[in-house]
């Protein structure tokens, strides 16, 4: 809405995000302009121009020939919104609840590692913006700033810790203990990345920051269990930064040692003991049998994700997987979603297919690389504004109103009418 005095503003639990549009339309009268264009294509192009070659390739590359990335975007095209009209959206709100916490919208920051390759402020900027917007920030255990520093930047904001499950139980436990102590309210175990998928450009130029300029980052170098391993190996972080970085990433993060369902109950029990019973979730579910197994194991939530097409080439689109997972276990656990989200319509469609929450990745990473903290803030506020406006113009007044009846679905095999080089 454009009326800055609309009564709905005072009735909402959340800000009237859509008023950002009015603000931006008026801004030229005051000589103000946004830090960047939020069109995904233009944002992607700007990030490519401003990032280093290494930073750009790492942020944009996918596994193999990018077919899974293409499948993600194709799936969003296949499912199409059915607008309603003459609906009272004057009283709409984007507020929702996740694990007992009230959030400003069903949107959060997906965990993405080594943010210093995009901007010197790294994880601190998105963590700070997430708190300002009251949406969850998820810190990757492959992050470049420490668990504690990132928590401080996030302040009282909702935050989760994403765990890459180290084969070294002492290091894994140490990270969980640090996360709980620093106020992270859920553990998100990623299960699709025991090692990185084959990404042609990164391999071709040896683009692996942990072996080069960033090493173990503050997250690893502040971990007492890992530092003990470094000492035992006779390494000095100051004198042997690349070797220490390799030890961190090779032995604790993307180590190549597959963990199994048989081991999962022990990890869940460990987190529950450490945290006093806070939620434990699995990220990376695409298969219905795996979803059922996760529920059987007692997880509190599932994030349906194919790692944005960066792990398994030629895989099912994550949105298509979401439909099946929701049908199988949607009434038994909290179903969340990520992979391929580029705008408000994508968020809407994931919610309509049964996700309770949607995590966004590359949009904020490209914004961080293109314009730092200001870029992240503008892109995420704009995404919330776009979603607020979409609810208004499509005739849906609340998150609960967005259900399976809100979309129509074209047959499988319907192709996105564009070239494969999709944003």
Automatic annotation (TrEMBL):
Glyoxylate binds at residues 58, 164, 199, 307, 310. FMN binds at residues 111-113, 140, 162, 190, 283, 305, 338-342, 361-362. Coiled coil: none annotated. It comes from the Eukaryota. PROSITE patterns: FMN_HYDROXY_ACID_DH_2. Residues 32-412 form the FMN hydroxy acid dehydrogenase domain. The keyword Membrane does not apply. It comes from Microdochium trichocladiopsis. Its cofactor is FMN. Belongs to the FMN-dependent alpha-hydroxy acid dehydrogenase family. Keywords: Flavoprotein, FMN, Oxidoreductase. This is FMN-dependent dehydrogenase. GO terms for molecular function: FMN binding; oxidoreductase activity. The active site is at residue 307.
């Amino acid at each position: 809405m454009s009326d800055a005095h609309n009564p709905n503003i005072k009735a909402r639990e959340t800000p009237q995000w859509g008023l950002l549009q009015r603000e931006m339309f008026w801004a030229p009268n005051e000589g103000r302009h946004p830090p960047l264009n939020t069109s995904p294509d233009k944002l992607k192009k700007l990030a490519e121009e401003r990032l280093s070659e290494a930073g750009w390739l790492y942020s944009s590359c996918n596994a193999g020939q990018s077919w899974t990335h293409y499948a993600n975007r194709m799936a969003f095209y296949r499912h199409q919104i059915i607008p309603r009209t003459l609906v009272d959206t004057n009283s709409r709100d984007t507020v929702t609840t996740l694990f007992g916490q009230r959030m400003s919208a069903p949107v959060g920051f997906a965990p993405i590692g080594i943010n210093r390759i995009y901007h010197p402020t790294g994880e601190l900027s998105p963590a700070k913006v997430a708190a300002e917007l009251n949406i969850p920030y998820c810190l990757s255990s492959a992050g470049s700033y420490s668990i504690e520093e990132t928590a401080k930047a996030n302040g009282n904001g909702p935050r989760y810790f994403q765990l890459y499950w180290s084969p070294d139980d002492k290091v894994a436990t140490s990270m969980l203990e640090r996360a709980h102590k620093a106020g992270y309210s859920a553990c998100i175990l990623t299960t699709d990345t025991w090692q990185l998928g084959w990404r042609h450009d990164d391999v071709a130029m040896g683009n692996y920051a942990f072996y080069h300029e960033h090493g173990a980052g503050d997250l690893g170098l502040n971990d007492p269990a890992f530092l003990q391993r470094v000492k035992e190996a006779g390494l000095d972080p100051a004198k042997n930064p690349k070797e220490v970085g390799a030890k961190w990433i090779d032995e604790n993060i993307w180590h190549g040692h597959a963990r199994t369902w048989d081991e999962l109950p022990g990890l869940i029990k460990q987190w529950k003991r450490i945290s006093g019973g806070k939620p434990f979730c699995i990220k990376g579910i695409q298969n219905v049998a795996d979803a059922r197994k996760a529920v059987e194991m007692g997880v509190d939530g599932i994030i349906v994700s194919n790692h944005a097409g960066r792990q398994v080439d030629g895989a099912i689109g994550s949105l298509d997987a979401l439909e099946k997972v929701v049908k199988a276990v949607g009434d038994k656990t909290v179903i969340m979603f990520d992979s391929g989200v580029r705008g408000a319509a994508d968020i809407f469609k994931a919610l309509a297919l049964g996700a309770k929450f949607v995590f966004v990745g590359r949009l904020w990473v490209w914004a961080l690389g293109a314009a730092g903290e200001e870029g992240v803030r503008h892109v995420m506020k704009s995404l919330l504004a776009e979603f607020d406006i979409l609810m208004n113009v499509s005739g849906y007044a609340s998150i609960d109103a967005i259900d399976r009846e809100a979309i129509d679905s074209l047959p499988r095999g319907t192709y996105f009418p564009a070239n494969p080089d999709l944003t």
